[in-house]
Amino acid sequence: MTATAIIQATTQPLTPFLKWAGGKRWLAEHVLDLIPDDFSTYYEPFLGSGAIFFSLQPKAAVLSDLNADLINAYASIRDDAEKVNTVLRHHHRQHTKDYYYEVRAKIMRAQHTRAAQFIYLNRTCWNGLYRVNLAGDFNVPIGTKTKVILDTDDFPATAELLSRTELYCRDFEATINLAGRNDVIFADPPYTIHHNHNGFIKYNENIFSWQDQIRLRDALVRAAARGAKVIMTNANHESVQALYNEGFSLTPVSRMSVIAGSSSARKAYEELLIVST
Ligand SMILES: C[S@@+](CC[C@H](N)C(=O)[O-])C[C@H]1O[C@@H](n2cnc3c(N)ncnc32)[C@H](O)[C@@H]1O
Which end of the chain is flanked by fewer CB atoms within 10 Å, N or C? Predict the structure, then answer.
């Protein structure tokens, strides 16, 4: 993408169409304040539900995630939102416990039916969780939510926004490597930390290893050196702080304190906002 500076237009708020573990809707205002008014391309290499992307609504973006079903849903809405919405409305009318398990077991071939299946399961499964078994089959049980069509749905506007994006199913590094001068990167990886005492991995190692955390830091340092603005969230742990001790400002943030306001004493600063300086 070109490096021409673009002033972002004022737009109507858009809500992410997915519920995603680690979603950053609660931090969106904070992150938006850190983004310069005039930047070139927005990069989000761990897209998930894209909370920051939907708040920002950039003129140009490169979005990616390792989850192929997730990227297919975005691409499908971009390419033909009405087709996805029609199948989703069908799921809405049919929804029962048996129907959920029937749809869950089906292999959908067309891009839009796979997308509608993914969104339907995301909205009706247990806690909006995404989990697959060793064979790669989605295996989350039905949850308590029964609404398949949401008041916040605006597929035409979502499609319009996505028409200004490049979408990829791939590892984060390939996306970060494209960012340069005047670009903005928002990186929200799965949280993995190094153990305090014996130097070994604590949790999430199977999803995102400590080696991945180092590879991510190195890619972000290179992008910042090329002139990109880097904003990331990560676990507020000394092992992560040590990774970003040069060239970045570190601010502990907590979902609880954002929700409860600054008067709250219940501040557990579990997350770290890391910004290139
Ligand atoms: C914490 S979630 C991002 C949440 C997102 N910020 C939101 O608002 O919903 C992390 C995402 O990283 C993706 N992921 C895991 N490993 C990855 C990798 N190596 N490269 C790219 N994406 C990866 C997961 O599929 C997941 O969607």
Answer: C
